[in-house]
Design brief:
The complex is a heteropentamer of chains A (about 100), B (about 500), C (about 625), D (about 180) and E (about 500). Chain A has about 100 residues and is mainly alpha-helical. Chain A contains three helices and no strands. In chain A, helix 2 runs antiparallel to helix 3. Chain C has a two-stranded antiparallel sheet. In chain C, about 60% of the residues are buried. The mean pLDDT of chain C is about 85. With about 180 residues, chain D is mainly α. Chain D has seven helices and no strands. Chain D is about 75% helix and about 0% strand. Chain D has one domain: Four Helix Bundle (Hemerythrin (Met), subunit A) (Up-down Bundle). Classes of the chains: A mainly alpha (about 100), B mainly alpha (about 500), C mainly alpha (about 625), D mainly alpha (about 180), E mainly alpha (about 500).
């Protein structure tokens, strides 16, 4: 017998929340991006948990796709971070306020 | 356990394959070619793909009209009128954008096939979204669309704003994506599937006594979509990104993203989660009001036309949301009509802005337009028509777009909502007209130079204006098409 | 008869139109004779119509010209009503007009807008004829307004003088106040009786409730006070003297200003329904007569004296109407037309000879130099003063007798007024023609010249009429007199009590005594001095501060309110609300712009908070 | 209570996973040095992998470790190194007024709300798998997953092609533009 | 029943004229000539139509030249035109005002766009008056904003930008409610009777509504029309727009576009939801009376002639509103007649002010004085127009005002009684203004002011002729419009009856 799915779901939700909080409070683009990865992991954990409770492989398959997306995002995202860093020599998003209003 | 590959109805997949194929072809070509690919060649490939998609759309339409809506590839893809119209809209917007990009690329010294390839691939993402019948596919389409645009936003190395836009768009976009996919996960948990048909079937055959999980999932999905369509309060990326991105790319954002995201939103909300409509509607109600009003009011304070258009497009998104709010066939048809006609108009608008923006893509202060309509009556006049269409003046297609969603809203008993939306349009009229006023104003003494109108961009503008005027005078066919398309999607 | 009546009406109009369209270089002579001729012809036709009417059984002709307005139940034909009353009016209107036209050709000689003057004059006659001949209240209103407009144009004839321009405007506006009364009367009648033609109104008048009848009468009275310069709307008339003197004679003495009296008499069948209304009329008339007479005693401008005299005399007429003596009112109207026109024309002759001088202080001793003007003026003076056997004596006597029978107080007021009348007219006469010559400064030492024949001929004719006019309704000649002639068309008001012959004689004696007292007083005061503030009380000279009061109570507050409305309410309040909305949008935009801070983490926070709100809503929904 | 209801190992596994995940996540949140953050991230990723295994997602756990920890985090680290380690200045000071409390409040309420919603529907409401078979572990899991990917999720699987093309082309463009500009300068 | 092609021609001729004007822009004065030609054709055509119009097409049916073609079934959009007595005068007015505006815009004859906009505006206005379908009406109604906006924005005075923007946004806001109301009504109608969505006036008028709904709909409609008319207190865009617009634009705005408001109030608000009148009538009547008095009051104090005419128009529109809302056929006919007369009169005013402005480059009252001396003809023409506006019998203004007041008095005596004070007020502000401008002694540049030129006199001829003719012989016109008005009022009375 396994622990109830609820535990994992709460764990995932908390992880999601930590990721979101990190995204909102960290100023480094890289770390914000890592927080997005945390959030995606929370999603994955949720998917897997539901897959177990529903006895459905679909949830696990979905995780597969989320991972692909995460990989693709990282590729592009880090490219952008690097591009921005090249220009501004900083990854702090707080310095990106040229456009507002 | 033998593996049975699901049957594939290739007609349904043809548009995506065509567009994505074109992207691959271009990539390969540019990789093989010793020198950067000539822009004309890229343009030719994109246009050929778009034309092909339009033809395919025609074939698909007649197929759907004869056989009704079908799904294929294990029900992950749907071939219905709604998808066909969305496909056509995306192809049209892509073709027009490509025309603009062609001229812009030459001036901005952005050579090579990268921009067309990314544009094609993004559009493929949008196509995935409009015909997706599975939340995972929607998500993948969304990501494909977005990733391409993240890069495109930052493609202009000559302006700092471009990279800022790219990073902002990217960070916020991936945040929204994470929210969206979390929503997918919760909906999956609530319904046991990510397939829209299965979800609809599950919700249709079971009474969900404890809908909390479903609600949570739906809320997260809504926020994800809300971000993509720039609904208030999830809109804040859009003015900055619109302003910073290269102008032709902004045109794509305003057109293709809206088509993809709205059609997917309608499909998810109306067809899959339709039974829970009463739950979503208050949220959408608030979203519509906030989006309409904030878009209109903030537009008033803008001196940069790209930001102005960003707020304009937020305001327009509010109207498109109206159709979603109704949750009815008429509303879906209204939203469909809206995005279908808005897309070419907004691309053409940004085409004009691209031209006026000049070589560095920097002259976007509204004062830069002073006397344009007097100096260059055709270009200025075209812009005026495009703005009037977005404003919703009669005899432009924008009027009927607004009319379509409003009548649907009133059918669903949303009198107050319709009134608020229309009043926001009246506020928005103020900033459109201020722009128009600048256009027709007397020239200043220094006499700005003429804006050159290259042929391809000119063609794009012309098409946009033609859509605005022709369907403004004679909206019947498009209206009937949109209505029919919706009937073919919602039985 | 139809053709006759139509022609009477149309001739002056044709004259106006012709005069308007003759080439600019046409001579004064041509224009003058054309316009005078058509009015003369009109007069001749009126006489013919009168004769026809006299020998006709019914003495009532309705002439339908064309349908002017017909909407639903509202039928307004352009129709004429020829009956004793209208034909009497038409007769003296055309007659006096013809004379004054003739006079004007001399008086206006050399004026810049000579032709325009005569166009207006002809138009005026046309309008006046429309007023009196009309078969419906609406057409009467047309004429009513028409004469008002002509009066406006003619008073402000010397438009480059600010006083003339203001006077014209004032005349029109005061008239307009009266017009509101006439309109309301029409509306009331139409809403109750569904007709506005005189004959139908009279035949259905019985359906009016007493309240409505009183309201109608009061509305008509308001109309009459405006047009006939009665309290409270009388003070436009003295100002109207800014117009050329023939205009004052014709419009502001003989014809137009009596239109109010005519209207009341015309509507006598309705008046008959409301005794309280009639009492109001009588009081207004009596008080006006008295007030105006007091004012006239202190005026220094010859025309102003005559103007207040006119107001006062019309007050008598209104008094007569109020006491139900319609015949007496008309009698006085006709007689007054004769002598007042004569007075004005005489005054005009004097003014003409003194190069436009109107101040009594710079006249005196003119009798010697104006051999025709002087005797004719003398006749007029005696007539208005009420000396027998001139027309004024009989006419005024008739009114006072009726007043006496009706209300002793009103009669007493009338008698006092009669004393005052004799006094101020004698004052004027003495200051103008007798005493030392004070005009040399004006004429630069030269002798004044008598006017040309075109001006003196009307004087003579009018003098004859003023002297003998009394015959049309001599008290002892009942039978073919004016009163009998008019009787069929007048609303019947039962006399309080019949007057015995002895009473009549006594009353006549009182009248004569009053006249003599006034005369003697004036002579004793004014034969030896030309100005004296003891006898020219400033309160009276300032018209009882009537204008000042209006200015303080109505004029200035209204102007201030208008100013406030224009400068404060309009931009700040009404448009201010609009501006506030616009401002709110702008301020909202500025506030919201702050949220759009450019910080990507703010944007993310907004998204998160948006999500938070949605989730909270759903939690609440689940319960 | 717990011990009576559930086998001790599964609790242990859960607690292990939870600690790994939470500590790692908080680490990402708290540490100043991005390299440390990346390492914390790995901690979380491992924790998630443990949770996967505990819930019969063996193959995914493997992929998690290989793809995430092995590729993605390495990529992060690569970029961090590429950009230089000492770039993160003053990250402990929050310049945006109210950002942290509001973020904390918003996130807490949201997560709390979501948990409440999940709890209200007893954590799961969906239909069980149409096949009715419970999830296999080990090779069976891989087989099942493969079958799903090539049947139900075939289209999604194909669609990832587009995604990856975009990612690759995008990365290339971002990199190449860099070079082109440098050359131009 | 006559062919509907006449009406189609009425819509197309100005558009062709606009096109021709743009094409002829190269040649000197070409655009202007084409435009004048088109306007003359349009006027001739209008007169033919007005002459042919048969008020008794089929029994009680008073709609002539009618046709209906559905253009976009899902939207319920149809081309549905027809002419009845209610539109008749306004259609004529549209063509007439076009001619006058063109003639008043002679100094703009080098600007093809200006005349083209005028022609387009005419087509839109014509469409609104001919439309027998709510949505079609709305499209045309709303469309008039665009050309008027450009006319003010491009050729207006110093504050044209603000004026044009305010005008547009104000009226656009107003029509928002109108559109919502129309759609609501059409949907309600469809829900009741089924079938395709339709906005045909005839159909919509037959919708059964609850009392409350009717009131809300009426308010929604009335707001749009009150802004357009304008009805107090939604008028504040008008003085600014009238004053800032060029002469041709002021003429179009005040003489024509204002009538769209009162026409809409009658045709759409009263015509479609008469049930609401039970509750809203006192309110609207009161607003009308307030407008009459307030407009007159402000007109007294306003410092320039164009604003004066604007406030005078506010008062006059108050009279029209009074007539439209009175529930009396007499007053309604009077209101229709006043719409026409006021159009002619204001056009006359703005033309004359344009003449003065051309000479003195100002229409501020304080800059002008004693003009009658050097320019007697100008003064005379102004006098005629002014007297017509004051309501001097024998001129056109009187007949209409009289009908309105007497008709309203039979149904709503108190309001009519107060409105009658407006008769007094109009005389006050106009005469005072006339005195300040034309009377007194001319000095400085006013002293040698040129009198009306031959061309200018000819421009004023139609105004004067109409002012006199309709004052003396209004009956032929009244006869033609009566059946439709009676039909409408009967419908209204039947609906209001408990």
């Amino acid at each position: 017998m396994n622990v109830p799915a609820a535990w994992y779901l709460v764990l995932a939700a908390v992880l999601f929340g930590i990721g979101a909080y990190g995204l909102l409070t960290r100023r480094s683009a890289l770390i914000m991006f890592m927080c997005v990865e945390l959030m995606l992991n929370a999603v994955n954990l949720t998917f897997v948990t539901f897959a177990r409770t529903l006895s459905d492989i679909g949830g696990q398959a979905s995780v597969f796709f989320v991972m692909v997306v995460a990989a693709a995002e990282v590729t592009v995202g880090l490219g952008i971070v690097v591009a921005v860093f090249r220009r501004r020599h900083s990854t702090s998003v707080d310095e990106l306020t040229e456009m507002k209003g | 356990m033998s593996l049975t590959i699901p049957s594939i109805h290739y007609l349904a997949l043809l548009p995506v394959l065509t567009i994505f194929g074109a992207a691959v072809v271009l990539t390969v070509l540019s990789a093989l070619a010793r020198r950067p690919l000539r822009p004309a060649a890229s343009l030719a490939v994109v246009l050929a793909a778009c034309v092909a998609v339009l033809v395919e759309g025609f074939v698909q339409w007649s197929y759907v009209a004869d056989h009704g809506a079908t799904t294929t590839v294990a029900h992950a893809v749907v071939l219905d009128g709604f998808a066909v119209v969305g496909t056509v809209a995306v192809a049209l917007a892509l073709a027009l954008s490509a025309l603009v990009v062609y001229d812009w690329g030459e001036r901005a010294r952005v050579f090579g096939a990268e921009v067309p390839v990314l544009a094609l691939a993004s559009s493929a993402g949008a196509l995935l979204m409009v015909q997706a019948n599975d939340l995972i596919v929607v998500f993948l389409g969304l990501e494909t669309l977005s990733l391409g645009l993240y890069v495109l936003a930052g493609v202009d190395r000559h302006r700092t704003g471009s990279s800022e836009a790219a990073l902002k768009y990217f960070l916020l976009g991936s945040f929204a994506s994470a929210i969206f996919i979390y929503g997918v996960a919760l909906v999956y948990g609530a319904t046991g599937s990510t397939n829209l048909s299965s979800i609809a079937y599950f919700l249709g055959t079971n009474v969900v006594l404890r809908p909390g999980l479903l609600y949570a999932g739906g809320a997260l999905l809504l926020v994800g979509f809300g971000f993509k369509v720039a609904a208030v309060p999830f809109h804040q990326w859009s003015p900055d990104v619109y302003q910073g991105s290269p102008t032709p790319v902004t045109g794509m954002m305003a057109s293709i993203v809206k088509v993809g995201a709205f059609l997917a939103l309608v499909r998810v909300l109306v067809s899959a989660l339709g039974t829970q409509l009463d739950t979503w509607r208050p949220i959408l109600y608030a979203l519509v009001i906030a989006t309409c009003v904030v878009g209109a009011v903030l537009g008033l304070a803008q001196r940069d036309v790209k930001r102005l258009l960003a707020y304009s497009s937020i305001n327009q998104a509010g109207f498109m949301l109206l159709g979603v709010w109704t949750g009815s066939a008429a509303g879906a048809a209204g939203t469909l009509f809206y995005v279908l006609t808005y897309a070419p108009v907004v691309v053409a608008t940004f085409a004009v802005v691209t031209l006026v923006g000049g070589v560095g893509d920097t002259r976007h202060a509204i004062d830069g337009y002073r006397g344009l309509a007097r100096r260059q009556p055709w270009l200025g006049g075209a812009l005026v028509v495009l703005l009037l269409s977005q404003l919703g003046a009669p005899l432009t297609v924008g009027f009927y777009a607004k009319y379509a969603v409003l009548s649907a809203t009133l059918r669903s008993g949303g009198g107050a909502l319709a009134l608020v939306a229309l009043l926001s349009a009246a506020i928005a009229a103020a900033f459109y007209l201020r722009w128009v006023m600048v256009l027709v104003a007397e020239e200043t003494e220094d006499g700005a130079e003429r804006v050159a109108v290259p042929r391809a961009t000119g063609l794009a503008i012309l098409v946009g204006v033609a859509v605005a005027v022709v369907f403004g005078v004679w909206p019947g066919p498009v209206a009937a098409w949109a209505q029919h398309a919706t009937l073919l999607f919602l039985p | 008869m139809a053709a006759l009546a139509t022609l009477i009406l149309l001739l002056p109009l044709a004259g106006a139109l012709l005069a308007m369209s003759v080439p600019r270089r046409a001579s004064e002579r041509a224009v003058g004779s054309l316009t005078t001729g058509v009015v003369g012809a009109s007069f001749v036709l009126a006489v013919a119509a009168f004769l026809v009417l006299l020998h006709h059984q019914h003495r009532e002709f309705s002439v339908h010209l064309f349908t002017w307005i017909s909407v639903g139940s509202l039928h307004v034909p352009a129709s004429l009503l020829v009956d004793p009353l209208s034909i009497t009016m038409a007769l003296f209107v055309t007659g006096i007009s013809a004379l004054i036209h003739l006079y004007s050709t001399g008086y206006m000689h050399g004026e810049r807008d000579f032709r325009k003057f005569f166009v207006y004059l002809n138009l005026f006659v046309f309008s006046m004829l429309v007023l009196v001949l009309s078969g419906t209240l609406v057409m009467t209103f047309v004429g009513w307004e028409g004469v008002g407009a002509c009066s406006y144009w003619l008073v402000s004839y010397y438009f480059d003088r600010d006083s003339a321009a203001s006077a014209g405007k004032k005349a029109f506006l005061y008239n307009r106040v009266g017009d509101v009364g006439l309109l309301l009367a029409m509306f009331l009648l139409f809403s109750r009786l569904h007709t506005l033609s005189y004959l139908s109104v009279f035949s259905r008048a019985g359906q009016l409730s007493p309240t409505v009848a009183t309201l109608v009468v009061l509305a008509l009275l308001l109309a009459a006070t405006g047009k006939s310069a009665q309290i409270p709307l009388f003070n436009w008339l003295p100002d109207a003297m800014e117009g050329p003197t023939p205009v004052s004679a014709l419009i502001h003495a003989a014809t137009m200003v009596t239109a109010g009296v005519y209207l009341l008499v015309r509507m006598s069948p309705v008046l008959a329904l409301s005794s309280s209304g009639r009492l109001t009329i009588a009081v207004i008339g009596g008080v006006t007569a008295f007030v105006a007479a007091t004012v006239a005693t202190a005026q220094r401008d010859i025309k102003k004296v005559l103007a207040f005299s006119t107001v006062s005399q019309i007050g008598y007429m209104v008094l007569a109407v109020g006491v139900g003596a319609y015949g007496a009112a008309i009698f006085l109207m006709v007689a007054h037309a004769f002598y007042k026109a004569l007075l004005f024309l005489g005054a005009g002759s004097v003014i003409h000879s003194l190069h436009g001088e109107q101040d009594l202080g710079r006249m005196g001793g003119l009798a010697r130099y104006l051999p025709l003007t002087y005797p004719t003026f003398l006749v007029a003076w005696l007539a208005i003063a009420g000396i027998p056997p001139f027309a004024g004596f009989f006419a005024k006597g008739d009114v006072l007798t009726n007043a006496y029978l009706h209300d002793k107080f009103l009669w007493a007021l009338g008698v006092v007024t009669a004393v005052l009348t004799a006094y101020y007219m004698s004052r004027l006469f003495v200051l103008c023609f007798r005493g030392e010559e004070r005009f040399r400064g004006v004429t630069h030492g030269a002798d004044p010249h008598e006017s040309p024949w075109v001006m003196t001929l009307p004087l003579v004719v009018l003098a004859v009429l003023a002297a003998l006019g009394g015959v049309i309704d001599l008290p002892w000649a009942h039978g073919r007199s004016l009163a009998t002639f008019l009787h069929p068309v007048l609303g019947y008001v039962a006399p309080v009590v019949g007057a015995t012959t002895a009473t009549q004689w006594t009353l006549a004696a009182v009248d004569v005594a009053a006249a003599v007292v006034g005369l003697a007083a004036a002579y004793s005061v004014w034969s030896s001095r030309s100005s004296d503030s003891r006898y020219e009380w400033p309160f009276l000279a300032r018209v009882w501060h009537w204008d000042d009061a209006y200015d303080t109570v109505i004029g200035r507050p209204l102007t201030r309110v208008a100013g406030v409305a224009e400068a404060v309410v309009e931009p700040r309040v009404i448009d201010g609300a609009v501006a506030a909305v616009a401002g709110a949008a702008r301020h909202g935009a500025l506030g919201l712009r702050k949220a759009q801070s450019g910080f990507v983490r703010h944007y993310a926070l907004a998204t998160a908070l948006g999500l938070c709100v949605v989730v909270v809503y759903l939690v609440a929904r689940v319960g | 209570m717990i011990a009576t209801a559930y086998a001790v190992p599964s609790i242990l596994v859960f607690v292990t996973a939870a600690v790994l995940i939470v500590v790692g996540a908080l680490g990402v949140l708290a540490v100043r040095n991005p390299v440390h953050a990346a390492l914390s991230l790995i901690l979380t990723l491992f924790g998630v992998a443990v949770a996967f295994i505990a819930q019969s997602a063996d193959f995914l756990a493997a992929v998690q470790v290989i793809v995430y920890a092995g590729a993605i985090v390495v990529l992060f680290l690569f970029v961090i190194m590429f950009l230089g380690v000492g770039f993160s200045r003053h990250d402990h000071v929050e310049p945006l007024v109210g950002q942290r409390p509001l973020a904390a409040l918003g996130v807490a309420v949201t997560v709390g709300g979501i948990i409440a919603l999940l709890a209200s529907s007893h954590w799961v409401t969906g239909a069980t798998s149409a096949s009715g078979s419970s999830l296999a572990t080990g090779t069976g899991n891989v087989h099942q997953l493969g079958t799903a990917v090539f049947t139900t999720y075939l289209y999604a699987f194909e669609a990832t092609a587009a995604l990856l093309v975009i990612a690759v082309v995008g990365a290339v463009i971002l990199a190449r533009r860099e070079r082109a500009t440098e050359e131009a300068e | 029943m006559h062919s509907s092609w006449y009406l189609a021609a009425l819509l197309v001729v100005p558009l062709l004229g606009a096109l021709g004007a743009l094409l002829a822009a190269r040649t000197r004065d070409g655009a202007y000539r084409v435009a004048v030609g088109a306007s003359i054709v349009e006027l001739a055509l209008t007169l033919v139509v007005a002459f042919l119009y048969d008020p008794h097409v089929a029994g009680a049916h008073t709609l002539d030249f009618a046709t209906r073609h559905v253009l976009a079934a899902p939207f319920g959009l149809a081309y549905d035109v027809g002419l009845d007595g209610i539109s008749l005068l306004l259609v004529v007015l549209t063509s007439l005002v076009l001619c006058l505006a063109l003639l008043g815009a002679r100094d703009r004859r080098r600007e093809p766009a200006f005349v083209a906009w005028l022609l387009v505006l005419t087509a839109c206005t014509m469409g609104s008056f001919l439309a027998q379908d709510g949505l079609e009406f709305f499209v045309f109604f709303e469309l008039t904003l665009v050309p008027s906006y450009f006319i003010v924005a491009e050729w207006g005075g110093a504050e044209r930008a603000r004026a044009a923007l305010k005008f547009f946004v104000y009226t656009f806001t107003g029509s928002a409610a109108l559109l919502v109301g129309l759609i609501y009504l059409a949907v309600a109608h469809q829900n009741q009777v089924g079938g395709p969505l339709t906005f045909a006036f005839g159909a919509l008028a037959a919708t059964t509504l609850s009392h409350g709904t009717a009131v809300w709909l009426f308010v929604a409609f009335a707001v749009a029309f009150a802004v357009k008319s304008p009805i107090w207190p939604l008028h504040t865009w008008s003085p600014l727009a009238y004053a800032e617009a060029p002469t041709g634009g002021s003429i179009e705005l005040s003489a024509l576009l204002a009538k769209l408001g009162s026409y809409g109030l009658l045709r759409v608000a009263v015509g479609l939801v008469p049930l609401a009148l039970v509750d809203v009538r006192p309110v609207v009547l009161t607003l009308a009376v307030v407008g009459i008095l307030y407009g007159s009051l402000v007109a007294c104090a306003t410092p320039d002639l164009k604003r004066l005419v604007a406030y005078s128009s506010l008062a006059q529109m108050g009279f029209i509103t009074l007539g439209v809302m009175s529930g009396s056929a007499i007053a309604t006919e009077g209101a229709l007649l006043l719409m026409f007369n006021h159009g002619v009169i204001t056009a006359g005013f703005f033309l004359l002010i344009g003449f003065v402005e051309r000479r003195r480059a100002s229409y501020q009252i304080r800059d002008l004085a004693g003009l009658q001396g050097p320019a007697p003809v100008l003064a005379a023409l102004f006098t005629v127009v002014m007297m017509a506006s004051i309501g001097l019998p024998g001129l056109s203004g009187f007949v209409s005002e009289y009908l309105i007041l007497i008709g309203t008095f039979t149904t709503h005596a108190w309001w009519a009684a107060f409105a009658t004070l407006g008769v007094l007020a109009s005389a006050a502000y106009l005469l005072w203004a006339f005195q300040r401008v034309f009377h007194g002694r001319a000095q400085g540049p006013n002293e040698h002011l040129e009198d009306a030129r031959r061309a200018e006199r000819w421009v004023m001829v139609p105004v004067v002729v109409l002012v006199v003719a309709l004052g003396v012989f209004p009956q032929p016109v009244l006869n033609r419009i009566a059946p439709s008005v009676h039909q409408l009022v009967a419908h209204e009375i039947a609906a209001v009856r408990p």
